[in-house]
Hints:
The protein is α/β, with parallel strands linked by helices. It contains 9 helices and 7 strands. The chain has helices at 11-20, 26-34, 53-57, 70-79, 119-128, 146-154, 160-169, 186-196, 199-208, and strands spanning 41-45, 62-67, 86-90, 103-109, 129-140, 173-182, 213-224. A 7-stranded mixed beta sheet has the order 3-2-1-4-5-7-6, with helices on both faces. Helix 1 crosses helix 8 (186-196) and helix 8 runs antiparallel to helix 9 (199-208). It is globular.
Amino acid sequence: MIPSPNIWHHPGLYELENRSVDPEGRIExxxxxxxxxxxxxxxxxxxxxxxxxxxxAATARTVVGVEPHPxxxxxxxxxxxxxxxxxxLPGTAQRLPVPDVSVDVAHARWAYFFGPGSEPGLAELHRxxxxxxxxxxxxNDGTRSTFGRWFRLGYPQVDPDAVERFWSAHGWSRVPxxxxxxxxxxxxxxxxxxxxxxxxxxxxxxxxxxxTTVDYAVNLWWRRF
Length: 225
């Protein structure tokens, strides 16, 4: 398990980030085109504080959120306490606490840490996703967009081309999406940038960027089982 420095240490600011990314809902729309979860059993891997669980619960038959960090498990359970059919369980991607062939749609958003190293988690998806089911992984696209350039500056150890080769080699398909961060104030943008990037990189990019929006490219990786 790799600690997530943003949401683990700053869950309140990460909540703001969740509210501010992709305001048009392009990621969810693209997912629904490939595999709608209405009436189906959904698994959210690395569900964090449960931000996306109500979205799935609105139409899914059942929703299971899995999260390794105990304080976030507590927050996710609190968020979904009034929702029927939602369960939040402690666990990791490489040891999912759900039965074999019990999932129709699996979702992991910024939870697989850029591809290489995720092999044990992908093996677990093969165990739990039913035949004909679909898994989604949302990840940064470091090859383009303003945030993609910031990401390359802050994480030079991550090779975007190697990440794409990893997913393709494991039989996943890519849908490139253009979304954005859209904040109400400059202060909100700066706070979120500082939980995503190291202080030096954050200072650099904030000094050169004006306004309260950032264009942001993501990859929606998906696989049918």
